[in-house]
Specification:
Elements lengths: L4 H6 L2 H16 L2 H39 L4 H18 L1 H18 L2 H7 L4 H42 L6 E10 L2 E9 L4 E11 L2 E13 L8 E13 L2 E13 L19 H14 L4 H13 L3 H13 L7 H29 L3 H24 L1
Antiparallel strand pairs: 1-2, 2-3, 3-4, 4-5, 5-6
Helix pairs in contact: 3-4, 3-5, 3-7, 4-7, 5-10, 5-11, 7-10, 8-9, 9-12, 10-11, 10-12, 11-12
């Protein structure tokens, strides 16, 4: 029966808008899709809570004596584990996806729910669709957390570990030389990280391979309170300007200057790449390449892995479904065993490819995406086998 024309015209615009989205939801996500998606995400988050809770307990029990000896404050300890949880959750997100898919799909298969779905004419490709939707949700969250949120929290986490967990000596650097701009070479004889102060500093500027300016300062200090990012204070400054065969010398007791370098550029800190957002990583890589530094591969690998790792959710979901959608003689245990073996192989491939990229000069893009490529071939083979 067609409703009267005046009824449709009189309906509020937001009602028509809501009806439109309800129709989209009915067409794109049926009750079957919502059932699979909620099962997937529910099992995924439950496995995260379970495994990460155990990891936190083990980590605290293992390092509690160090926290006590180094007088770690309770508030700092709470903040540390508040940043510890999302970091390791995102690090092993692909493993959690794999476990979740195999666990709840095997349960559906044991309860003959998969058989009931297939008997209604649902193909394996149609069954895969809600898994891909849930994987897309996890991949988007994982990428955003890894690119923006977790690096900011990792700054405090790494600082806490250095101070209370793996206590180290104060940061100092000797005989630091780096190119801060095209044709501009900086040298610091000794730099102390705690006070951000350097001693016996020089800055040489070259044009056409000829020295045109030579600046020296007895002391240089980084101004972290300044609005400009690369602001330095120089003391007891002497500037020699070379004009052909002539030379002009200027002396100053104090000089404010902008030099494109920061205190962290003088140290290679453990896990420093984890504390930088994507934009900061790109900026750091470009500056280190300009200076000819040798530690760029670690940061390039981290940058490319942040894009490659979220895609593992799609690949491992497809593999997990193909392995567990049928009833097996060994039950859920057999599927979980095969799945964990494949997950361990995936993590091992990630480690091997990263090692080759850092130590053997492999392109970091290829090294980051190689495990995904190999497991995509496995997923396609299992998908074709499952369809048959």
């Amino acid at each position: 029966m067609v409703p009267p024309r005046h009824t449709l015209a009189g309906k509020k615009w937001w009602g028509r808008f809501a009806d439109f989205f309800r129709s989209i939801r009915r067409n794109l996500f049926s009750r079957f899709d919502r059932y699979i998606i909620f099962k997937f995400l529910g099992t995924y988050f439950f496995s995260i809570v379970l495994i990460i809770s155990v990891a936190v307990v083990f980590d605290f029990s293992e390092h509690s004596d160090k926290f006590t000896m180094n007088h770690a404050p309770m508030i700092g300890l709470i903040k540390y584990y508040f940043n510890f949880v999302p970091f390791y959750t995102n690090l092993f997100s692909a493993l959690f996806v794999f476990i979740a898919v195999i666990f709840f799909t095997s349960k559906l298969a044991e309860n003959s729910e998969i058989i009931a779905m297939m008997s209604t004419g649902i193909s394996f490709g149609r069954l895969l669709r809600p898994y891909m939707v849930a994987s897309a949700f996890i991949a988007i969250i994982s990428f955003y957390l890894g690119a923006e949120v977790i690096p900011r929290g990792s700054v405090k986490r790494v600082q806490f570990e250095m101070r209370y967990k793996n206590k180290k000596k104060p940061l100092v650097a000797d005989h630091v030389q780096l190119q801060v701009d095209t044709g501009v070479i900086a040298y610091i004889d000794h730099f102390e990280g705690t006070t951000k102060t350097g001693y016996r500093f020089s800055l040489d500027k070259f044009q056409n391979k000829s020295l045109v300016s030579h600046l020296t300062a007895q002391r240089i200090q980084y101004d972290s309170l300044a609005d400009e990012r690369f602001h330095w204070k120089l003391y007891d400054v002497k500037i020699r300007t070379l004009l052909g065969l002539r030379e002009h010398i200027t002396t100053k007791h104090f000089l404010d200057s902008v030099i494109i370098m920061e205190p962290q550029d003088f140290f290679v800190l453990k896990n420093q790449q984890q504390t930088l957002t994507n934009d900061q990583l790109l900026d750091y890589i470009e500056r280190q390449k300009l200076r000819g530094a040798g530690n760029v591969k670690v940061f390039e690998m981290e940058y490319n892995k942040r894009y490659a790792d979220p895609f593992a959710a799609f690949i491992l979901s497809a593999i997990g479904l193909a392995l567990s959608f049928r009833k097996r003689k060994g039950g859920m245990g057999a599927s979980l065993g095969i799945g964990l073996a494949l997950a361990a192989l995936y993590i091992m491939l990630q480690t091997i490819s990263s090692t080759f990229a850092i130590n053997s000069g492999w392109p970091s893009v290829i090294a980051a995406w190689m495990p995904n490529f190999l497991f995509t071939l496995v997923a396609v083979w299992l998908y074709q086998k499952a369809r048959r």
